[in-house]
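step=predict obj=Maleylacetoacetate isomerase n=210
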Amino acid sequence: PILYSYFRSSCSWRVRIALALKGISYDLVPVNLIKDGGQQFSPEFKALNPMQQVPALKIDGITLSQSLAIINYLEETHPNPRLLPQDPKKRAQVRMIADHIVSGIQPLQNLSVLKQMGEKKMEWAQNCITSGFQALEQILQHTAGRYCVGDEVSMADLCLAPQVANAERFKVDMGPYPTITRINKALLELEAFKISHPSRQPDTPAELRA
């Protein structure tokens, strides 16, 4: 497999965690979203992913984009350890939390949107994350065990940790979100989350390395 990734991309980090958890080794091709006006806009990368976004994963003779589509494929082809609970209610909760982050928070504060916001980008990102986290904190109070849904790491957790990293980067006050903070702390102790962390990637700038 070949993963096209950017160290700071939260969508790429979700996929890196899934690959690490499932023990799938891969080659990493960095795509710098800022350098050269954004390497994702090159004709070569557009041919690979017409949406001109990371991640993209070449695997088993196909190229997939969109982090949840990639993670679902990995789940179906490498079922252990599972990232979706067997219980239908818990599985629905996992998907709900993942969608909440992937659709309701992250796209509103990603690079392409922030470019449009000009000087207000920090305030905009904080507001988007805060309103999303207020709802997420409430949801997690009903679903969480050690992790987002019960005591097993799931697809929801793969979305949570990168979104908390975004929140910290945009200087969001995490005080009002004790459940999110507690789960994130537990996740960052896991090896798969450590080795896939933005501070430990081949394309991480020296000053941001762990």
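step=describe
The domain at 2-80 is CATH 3.40.30.10 (Glutaredoxin).
step=end
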